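Practice problem: predict the structure.
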Amino acid sequence: MKRTIRYLLSVICVVGALSACATSVTRVSPDKIIDLSGRWNDTDSRLVAEEMMKEALIRPWIDNFSSKNNKPPTVIVGSILNRSHEHINVQTFTKDLERELTNSGRVRFVASKSEREELRQEREEQMEHSRKDTVKAPGREIGADYMLKGSINSIQDEEGGRKVVYFQVTLEMIDIESNIKVWFGDKKIKKFIKKRRFGF
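Answer:
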C-alpha cells in the first residue's frame, strides 16, 4: 500500500513539474509595449523611427528643395551603423525609417542598393525572355537627391542588481550632389533596469 502511495506521489510530482515547464504562447498586438530585459527592442525601433522621421519631415530642407525644383525630394536610406554594446537588428530599424518616409507622402523614396541590383537583373532577364511590349527599359531609374545615414550608440552602467542603459540614435540627411548635411537629428533613450532576485 505504501509503495503504491509513493508511486502515485511520484507521478503527481512529475506531472506537476512538466506542467510548470510547459511553454505558454499568447498572441498580442504588435503595437503593445513589452519590455522584458531592457535591451533595444521592436518598440524602441518603431518609436525612434516615427519620432525622428516626423521631426525630419517638418524641417525646411524639404520645402527648400521642392520650391527650387518644383518636385518633392527623392531619398534613399544609406548605412545605419550599430555601435552599441548590443546586437541590434539594424535592418528592422532601417525598414521602420523607410516606412515612415514613404508613407509621409512628402518625399519620394527609391529602392536600396541591394533591391536595385535585383531589379536590374530582372530587367536584364526581361530583355531576353519577355514579350517586347512588356519589357521594362534600362536607364530610366530615378536618382536619389538625399541619403539618410546614421548610427546607434549606447552607454551602460551597472552595479549589483541595477543597470542603466543609455541609447543615442543619430541620423543625418545628406545632399548626394554637394555632400551638404541638410538635417541632423538625435533621439535618446534611457532605461533603468532593476533585477530583484538574480544578477545580470
